Amino acid sequence: MGNLTFAIIKPDAVRAGNTGNIIQRINDAGFKLRAMKTLHLTQREAEGFYAVHRERPFFAGLTEFMSSAPCVVMVLEKDRAVKAWRDLMGATDPAKADEGTLRKEFGASVGENATHGSDSDENAAIEIAYFFSQLELV
Hints:
Blueprint: E1 4-9, H1 11-15, H2 19-28, E2 32-39, H3 43-49, H4 59-66, E3 71-77, H5 81-89, H6 102-106, E4 115-117, H7 121-131
Antiparallel strand pairs: 1-3, 1-4, 2-3
Helix pairs in contact: 3-4
């Protein structure tokens, strides 16, 4: 199991002023922040990142939303990082997410659910490389 995962604080959470609260929760959960930056993705950058979903019906809405305002991209470190971060985020649908999860607390809908996280070690490596060079991982 890998020790790194990729995470995004999505535009809805940044716009709502929840970046600091989410980062505090990440720290409190025992993650180390290995890299972090604020970006305002272009539509093309969002489409490139979510290219795996290009044929899905939600692709256009997702990429439009992800390029609508700044987001915060991060590399998190912890044992079994992918699972630990997904557990902290909670279910994709905030209405179905467990109490105490980030999406339950900060998410509004399936489309605007505050955070993104890699779903496997393989995808974590791909997603980290999309946004960060090796020099940026501390």
